[in-house]
Input
Amino acid sequence: MSDGPAGNHGAELHGVPGRPDDAHGELMLRTFAFPADANPAGDIFGGWLLGQMDIAGASLARRRAHGRVATVAVAQMSFKLPVFVGDEVSCYCTISHVGNTSVTVEVEAWARRHDDSGTVKVTDGHFTYVALGADRRARSIAK
Output
């Protein structure tokens, strides 16, 4: 099933319904944009979207680090298209680097439009997390 050039939200890949053909990584978060997340024009605040992406990236980083992580950097954010109230937002994540104490995750955010006009990539960025020990200080990550 295809929705034309905007994307394919009927596809199923790796058991994930609605995965866009061009999405990279593992689905780590799926949520909806609500009116409380928007400005008066109905566009979702970039900070809300950045927060969702951070949650998704941290989930994958935590799994790789086998424990607690904290965000230490966000780089190369690129807002391509707006997210609107009612859109379904999905974040796909890929680990791009594992250092001694840090994990860098590439995060893509995709929006399935509330009006069924398709699925589009709305933003992407690189998030770096540091692994934390019980003392809340950086700790080594097993290779």
